[in-house]
Amino acid sequence: MAAKPRAVVVIGVVAVAIAAIASWLLYNYLREQQEIVKEAVATEQVVVASKDIPVGTTIERTQIKVVTWPKANVPERAVLTEAGAVGRVALQGIQSGDPITEAKLVPRGGAPGILTYKIPEGHRAMTVGVDQVSGVAGFITPGNMVDVVLTHKNPEGRRGPLSKIILQNIPVLATGQIIEQEAEGKPVIVPTVTLDVTPDEAERLALASVEGRLQLLLRKHGDKDVFASGGATISRVIGAAPAGPAGPSPRVAKAAGKRAVKKGPVTTKAAGARTINVEVLRDGNKQIETFKVQQ
Question: Which distant-in-sequence residues (6+ apart) come within 8 Å of 28 by Cβ?
């Protein structure tokens, strides 16, 4: 009988030990969960835009406000006080409700202007004059991508003018206007476009701007394809074949593929024999083939 009380005591001690361990584990778990919840709900004061702030704007107190922001989601280098934002210049457009960060502002004591901070490392900003036609009728804006076409009246080694794409996928940094004088001395407003170029591209662009006429081609957003330009000459534009029916357009030629495209026959008489000249298109190249016709 004495063995039973002893077993009960042992079982009781073991049960108490298990309960103590379980309580200790539960306490640690709850404490960890409490720290997680406390960190999740922790907040910090952050400065945000109370209205849209355009790029280049000197920020005023009426354009910002201080709000409570989840501490875990505070943006890197966020401005935490109004004094840290008022009087600073916006380096980019800031939408209403967006937090203001140092990356969106011109550095304190930095160089004046905002363009110098938009130029990538190793690149240069270069401004070229355009007109309403060559500037795509004013539809080019900062952030667009363009190609640059040069038209030269008398390039070296060629009899006629040449038009060629000389630069592709060039970012537009800014647009503006300058005032120049015509030959008669009258002032004229010339639109300008400032491009983001490498030093090598800047040299080519500078030479092209004084040797011929520049035109800009606005690219579709996201289009980064590079076109292998061979240039266009008058003979290529109007064709070197004798006068006759106009040849198919590039779109028609592309659809035709390698299939020969015959055009209206042109008959001629030479030395008493009747012949027919037929323009044939093979792989995009036009050829004139002469056939004799039996009388």
Answer: none
